[in-house]
Amino acid sequence: MSEAVKPVRVLHVTDGSSLAELIRAAAESDPPIEIQTATSSAEGHQQLVDGDVDCIVVDHDLPNIDGIELLETVREDYPSLPFILRTDGGSEKLAKDAISADVSEYLHTDQKQALLDRIVDLVEQYRADHKRERELQRTTDLLAKTERIADVGGWEIDTETREVFWTDHLFDILGVKGDEEPPLEEALDFYHEADRPIIASAVDEALTDGEPFDVDVRFVRPNGEVRWLRVQGVPAVENGTVETLRGAVQDVTERHNRERVLREMHDIISDRDHSFDQQVRKLLELGRRELDTQYGTLSEIDGDDYTFEIVASDDDSIQEGDVVPVSATNCEIAASTERTVVLGDVERDAPDETDRAGFAEWGIGCYLGAPVFVDDEVYGTFCFYGTETKNGQFSDWEETLVDLMSRWVSYELQRRQVTEQLHEQNEQLERFASIVSHDLRNPLGIIEGYVDIAVETGDVSELHRVQAAVERMDTLIDDVLLLSRTENAISERSTIDLRTLVEQCWETVPTEKATVSVQTDRRVDADKTRLRQLFENLIRNAVEHGGENVQVTFGDLDDGFYIEDDGPGIPEDVRKTVFEGGYSTSHDGTGLGLSIVDEIVAAHGWEIRITTGTEGGARFEITGVEAVD
């Protein structure tokens, strides 16, 4: 049934005379009136307590019924309940007493229709008021909850009295106990001394000129704690006069802290006077301070090796350069999942991880770490961990901060790698330019000279020398092109028998009277085309520098192979430069062969070094090569 036709429930305290006639009239009323009766003040009060009553009607001056006394009792607990007092005669004193006790209506007993009409009117008004009160209470409750969730409080200033009103949550925000707002001037004194003129000026302009304001200022709580507040004020203007000033206060301390941290981070990463390692160390210290952790590390993961590259800590339990199994650390999770790992309490959030060696050795209670990427591959981790657990969890802001730091580290590592590659390419271009501008100029000059002679004299007897110069240029061009295509140019690897490949290379390189001894049956995984170029260049180098009767030997090393000859060897003081383009002691050499060898070795991930051979010649040892069974 809707509220519009809901019956009106009336408690009638009476002796029962003429009640039947009243009940009949009430039943025909719209809305219908339901009457329950009591024959004494005490009974009436009890029914009121026990029942659900919309209105109480009391017949005064009957035995056991004192209308004024009952009215006063009812008003103690039901201040707004409609209360109608009826009397046969009445008096001026009775009327005054009734009005003083807050009676709703005062009627003569013979006014039956007027009674019913007043009951309906009073109850409708009572119900409407009660509904508004419920809605107001609901709104107030929702506002209070919203204030707490948003950490916002409200305030109001009466421009005439200068009185201040605060919402309940504003007391909490300001850390002020009690329920009585301080005077305006005293309230302004709570603000930080440096910011007091800002808020005072804003309030004054709002009160006098009607200007709204929105300022961030510091507030000093009674316990001395400084908080940042966003204070907004909007004047209520009527007829050109500011009547009240209302506004809101929001605690924005965390926002200001975040902005401060981001400014610090920006200053660190934009300071080009510091090295990358110094910048990372400063970021780790900043992160440790904000996350309240004991350790901050940038680490590299290579297979199962976890290397602490840069460490920020108050103790020396972890040193830069220390290497531990990655399985001993929580960073394995960040690396394998390629996501940020957040553990406010390792035992609570990841009980399966507590058996890692690092958990017990370093006493890890909490962990927050993010993967670092280079070339879209996991390079390592940027992480923080402490010996104490977090009461709750790392905040979203703290997780975001670590993500931002790790992304910058990833970017810088990637940039450094690209810069190094560009530097190497520029050096290579410079070598090519030197070769083209210098080494090609000599045979080109020879060609021009003999061609000019032939044109001027008609004598072509020396043109065979032009052919030699052309072949020299052709060799130079081939070597330059090969070198330019070799760096990092490894295609699909295959299993290669070294003996077979060496013997094939020996047949394709002009070796004069040189001899070869192949003392290996090893097989390796390599790019066959590039490995062939490596062997051909080393054979050619031995023949060019060792003489036409040179003996060349290929043999095994524990983790690779070697090629040596019995020629004059390479002086120790020039061994570091022989792999640079253009180095050659042979008149016919281009000086690029060993550069090509070095690039092929590096592209495979191997290493090469020069030593003295068994017979005093040059010995090239290539290591880091895994043999294939």
Automatic annotation (TrEMBL):
- Keyword Nucleus on entry: no
* Domain named Response regulatory: residues: 9-124
Domain (PAC) ranges: 213-264
Q: Where would I find the Histidine kinase domain in this sequence?
A: 435-623
| Keywords noted in UniProt | Kinase, Phosphoprotein, Transferase, Two-component regulatory system
Which EC number(s) does UniProt give?
2.7.13.3
Q: What GO molecular function annotation could you give as one example from this UniProt entry?
A: phosphorelay sensor kinase activity
Q: What is this protein called?
A: histidine kinase
Stored Gene3D superfamilies: 1.10.287.130, 2.10.70.100, 3.30.450.40, 3.40.50.2300, Histidine kinase-like ATPase, C-terminal domain (3.30.565.10), PAS domain (3.30.450.20)
Positions carrying 4-aspartylphosphate are D59
Organism, scientific name: Halohasta litchfieldiae
